[in-house]
From TrEMBL:
Coiled coil: none annotated. It is an enzyme of class 3 (hydrolase). Belongs to the creatininase superfamily. The keyword Metal-binding applies. GO terms for biological process: riboflavin biosynthetic process. It comes from Prochlorococcus marinus (strain MIT 9301). Keywords: Hydrolase, Metal-binding, Zinc. InterPro entries: Creatininase-like_sf, Creatininase/forma_Hydrolase. This is Creatininase. It comes from the Bacteria. Its EC number is 3.5.2.10.
Length: 264
């Protein structure tokens, strides 16, 4: 039986194919990051990982097979200490994740790859990946590194989600429950918690924002949910999915059509 590899999966190619791709002046690797952490009683532990893996896989379907863009296997286990009060959460240390990104990124740079996109689906490790990306650049200055958050900068979210959901629906709430209903409905339970979104915070401070606190989920939520998931539905999820795919396909294609940064 002849086996035809999936052209954009890094690990399915042979070393000669990788060597050829890396030589391209626009060679780019996408490395998705997620988490294995509690997402309430109704969503799977791998919610963030599933989201980023599914969206990027859909984005690849819009590109031609010969584009010099490859995807590393999604890093499912991430940095999730805020959820360690709940069974099922597995969290790696910040030092381990930073070291892993530096080691893998340095090797990609040595192969000749020009750009690395760290596309992250877990809000709790945004700052960590930003820091790791800067450290990677210091040891592999010839490769551009882009630490991105799946939900950041996506136009149209405010038309689909209320201000309350955008600001306070921090975890396993309306948006995440709806998106999972659109992607993998068989993994969604029947519960629709509404919890953890009415926290008394000193004036001017917030859970996340300009003056945040390093919160832990079990500070104010017994279910693990922060927000209101009661209105979740598949239709909203499909619209969110479309926004995410359109946003990232446009951004990635803009990058792939450019020579930035031109280090030659």
């Amino acid at each position: 039986m002849n086996f035809k590899p999936i052209p954009n999966k890094f690990e399915y190619l042979n070393w000669q194919e990788i060597e050829c791709v890396a030589k391209n002046k626009r060679s780019t690797v996408i490395w998705p990051f997620g988490a294995v952490e509690q997402h309430g009683p109704h969503l799977p532990l791998a919610t963030d990982s599933i989201f980023v893996d599914e969206i990027i896989s859909e984005v690849f379907k819009l590109f031609s097979a010969d584009i010099p863009l490859k995807k590393l296997p999604t890093q499912y286990i991430g940095f999730s200490p805020e959820h360690k009060g709940f069974a099922g959460t597995i969290s790696l240390s910040s030092n381990l994740i930073t070291s892993m990104i530096k080691e893998v990124g340095s090797q990609l740079s040595e192969m000749g790859f020009k750009r690395l996109i760290l596309i992250n689906g877990h809000g709790g490790q945004i700052s960590l990946l930003n820091t790791a990306a800067r450290e990677l650049r210091s040891v592999a200055p010839g490769m551009a590194v882009f630490p991105c958050f799946l939900w950041s900068g996506v136009n149209g979210l405010s038309e689909l989600l209320t201000k309350t959901e955008i600001e306070d629906g921090l975890h396993a709430s309306l948006a995440e429950t709806s998106l999972m209903l659109a992607l993998k409905p068989e993994l969604v339970g029947d519960d629709r918690p509404n919890e953890g979104n009415k926290v008394e915070i000193p004036k001017g401070w917030s859970l996340e924002g300009n003056a945040p606190t390093a919160w832990l989920t079990d500070d104010f939520s017994k279910s693990g949910v922060i927000g209101d998931s009661r209105g979740a539905n598949e239709s909203l999820g499909k619209n969110l999915k479309e926004l995410l795919i359109n946003h990232w396909s446009e951004l990635i294609m803009n990058l792939m059509q450019s020579d930035w940064p031109n280090n030659s």
